Amino acid sequence: MKVKTMAVNAVIAALYLAVTALIAPFGFTNIQFRVSEMFNHLVVFNKKYLIGIVLGVFISNLLLSTLGWYDLTFGVAHSLISLAITVVLCKFVKGRVKGMVANTLVFTFTMFIIAIELKLALGFPFWFTYATLAISEFVVMIVGVPVMNALNKRLDFNRMIED
Amino acid sequence: MMEKMVFGRYIPGDSFVHRLDPRSKLIFVFIFIAAVFLANSTVSYALLLAFTLMSIFASKVRIGFLIGGLKPVMFLIAFTFLLHIFFTKEGDLLFELGFLKIYEEGLRQGIYISVRFLVLVLMTSLLTLTTSPISITDGLEVLLNPLKKVKFPVHELALMMSISLRFIPTLMDETDKILKAQLARGSDISSGTMKERIQAVVPLLVPLFVSAFKRAEDLAVAMEVRGYRGGEGRTRYRQLKWDWRDTTALLILLAVIVALWFLRG
């Protein structure tokens, strides 16, 4: 792995935690509204960001989550699986906005992993939990599309990790 | 800003639990999480609770501190408890007031799931309270070492995690500074309509990303000029040492699991 890739991913992971902790303090309940969820779209710009995002989720859940290690295992699994699906999908979907919309749909669908977590940990009803989680994830991520697009115009995410 | 969160919540100390090797603590917590699901009777849940309290005692972490940290979870536990009490309609009817009916099974399930959850949260917070994040990283790196055989980049991941942990306070300070700077300019992300709040997020994220990427760039250059060439042949400053405490802790856990198995209803 290139040194630059490692450094960028490590800093992105730290930024994920900082944003999770400071911008949206109401993130770890049934209504997930983490601004940092928008970071998931980074993978559309370059697949190398996958590591940084997953690491960010891992560290955030290790240090901040109230659900403890449930969040650690399921949260990381959820991000890893969804991002991997998006990376594959992006080979077929052309255009970044379309890629981010596909990413949103993937994350919305895979929310069942978190619904299983809450069912296991707290005995919440699966379908109701899945529905609420999927809706909130969809909202945060679809809102993230124009935000990340605007950020990319100024920053060029692909270039930031490539050269 | 940093006071708001008990960051990483690591409390340095010199107790039995503090002195355990991070590897044994990680293995302990992983096995414990699975073992909790063995409990299915009142006696087995009581054993789990007693064992957790004993572990807290052995860590010398103040109970008051732990309970303070549990406040956000308490709401979730209370919610779950009520959910089970009102929606499980099995067993004998214990209490009736109008449409409100509480059944024996509902009460039992409510208590069991709450205790299970409480025990899990307490045990996992005990790990983060008694182990510094950097020790957790070291422990994870060694435990994941076998994955190197399948070309999994264990060393690189551990290094990224250490770098990340080092940058968290820096980036949190920066996030806080930018938040305040934008606030002073009249931006507000905590009120207004959804659209206004989203629009307020962009001027916040742009400087944050710019500075984060700048730091990453500087770091990469610094690593390269210092001749960083991957994990091969590197020695360690922090050495992990497995001693009698670690073996004892795992043996006690094994005894608890055997007891749980026999106490199953």
From TrEMBL, chain A:
Keywords: Membrane, Transmembrane, Transmembrane helix. InterPro entries: QueT. The keyword Ribonucleoprotein does not apply. The chain crosses the membrane at residues 6-28, 49-70, 76-93, 100-121, 127-151. It comes from the Bacteria. The keyword Transmembrane applies. Pfam families: QueT. This is Uncharacterized membrane protein. The lineage of its organism: Bacteria, Bacillati, Bacillota, Bacilli, Bacillales.
Automatic annotation (TrEMBL), chain B:
The chain crosses the membrane at residues 26-51, 63-87, 107-129, 244-263. One of its GO terms (cellular component) is plasma membrane. InterPro entries: ABC/ECF_trnsptr_transmembrane, EcfT. Keywords: Cell membrane, Membrane, Transmembrane, Transmembrane helix, Transport. It is a multi-pass membrane protein. GO terms for molecular function: transmembrane transporter activity. It is found in: Cell membrane. Belongs to the energy-coupling factor EcfT family. Transmembrane (T) component of an energy-coupling factor (ECF) ABC-transporter complex. Unlike classic ABC transporters this ECF transporter provides the energy necessary to transport a number of different substrates. Forms a stable energy-coupling factor (ECF) transporter complex composed of 2 membrane-embedded substrate-binding proteins (S component), 2 ATP-binding proteins (A component) and 2 transmembrane proteins (T component). This is Energy-coupling factor transporter transmembrane protein EcfT. It comes from Bhargavaea ginsengi. The gene is ecfT.
